[in-house]
Write a structure and sequence with these properties.
The protein has one domain: Glutaredoxin (3-Layer(aba) Sandwich), CATH 3.40.30.10. The chain is an alpha+beta fold and 169 residues long. It is built from 7 helices and 6 strands; from the N terminus they run H-H-H-E-H-H-E-E-E-H-E-E-H. The chain is globular and about 40 Å long. The chain has a 4-stranded mixed β-sheet with strand order 2-1-5-6.
Length: 169
Amino acid sequence: MKNIFFFCVSVILFGCASDGGSSNSSAAKINYPSSTEKVHWLTIEEAQALNKHEPKNMVVDVYTQWCGPCKMMDRMTFSDPAVIQKVHENYYAVKFDAESAAPITFGEKEYANPKHDPNKPKNRRNSPHEFSRFLNVRGYPSLVVIDPSLNIQKKIVGFKQPAELLQEL
């Protein structure tokens, strides 16, 4: 009886660990749930990988660490169930720190922040990332809608209440 129990447990565990024969692509390893509890933010690279397998618009939240209205959007707007649902149904949600030091790849091009000063406190302005310049971001927060072909479709600048953002998306 003990052997049967261990056999069943082993089959279940190995079955769950198996990928079911799916490909080993990076998109297959990215989990993008459709929960209404919170927005599931991706990196721009993760969104592009998912976009290759299931094309969908991206909405990029361009923010900075020191931006008060950006923090308000996180607390008030991106926690609203209707906003969460609309974002998950229609977009890959990307969070991008416009002053980060990390290089990113968008399309075939790599963007960096060569003038980033790691000694500056996070609550102070730093050098803008090349990707935020590419997106032509002029203020924070900014939401940039990018189509599956990686073309910029729309920019939404400034803090938005949930009802305002739902109308603009």
